[in-house]
Design goal:
alpha+beta, 7-stranded mixed beta sheet, globular
Length: 294
Amino acid sequence: MDTLEPTKLSIRKLAQPLGAEITGIDVGQRMSDATFRRIEDAFHEHCVVVFRNQRLTPEGHTGFSRRFGDLLVHVLKQHNDPQVPEVLVLSNIVKDGKPIGIQDGGQYWHTDLSYTAEPSRCSLLYSVEIPFENGVALGDTLFVNTCAAYDALSEEMKAGLAGLKATHSYTARYQRMQQKGGTRVELDEEQKKAVPEVVHPIVRTHPFTGRKSLYVNEGFTVGIVGMPEDESDKLLVKLYEHVTDERFMYRHRWQVGDLLMWDNCSTQHNAVANYGPHQRRHMRRTTVRGSAPF
């Protein structure tokens, strides 16, 4: 039996460029197709949506996530939930001398899995514990609407970007993280083979809405195909600065029990690391399979 009719849902816009809050739903329970369609429509419209006050088990988390498509298992398998490997743990908590999850995940502007041939459609992040200082939640996540950023480009720039492609690399980012220190261990050969460099168009068309977006990010993009390195670097920096402008941004302030999902075809995000190792943060993420950018 369906637990909720679509008329019970409430959708409230959180920011002009992107972001909405959906209330009146327990996503861990069964829902009708009509309810799901309304959620999916809101997701496509707002790019980032949050469901507050959820009480999700890993199984409930994956169950709802699968409504959007098949789930992926992260290449850093040592940080996946041992019982539910489709759930990636992001946390600064150390247990028995070992981190229970990725401690420094996403602390730069990026789009999830842009370094794969078929990048993720969307990601769903659930907050188990969040850090506080003097009663204020820390560890916000910043999002930008890459479709709005593309729309704001001059016609001359749009014409210049048409047909250009860029290379994306996971290992290049991973090596930079290792050089910064922390707990990142060397990738083994199997992990490296799983994430070879890929090439994607700089201007991507959304597979569901048809909107165009800027599809380069400072996290994983390493160069523009066929362009001299100095010219490539100069253009990429210009695009990074443009796409992360505050006019395209939404800042999510976490609460325990938030399930936040974002569209990897139309957003970039950056996790703000303004908390210390003594301030516990524990998140669980699922990632939905996507399609090759075009």
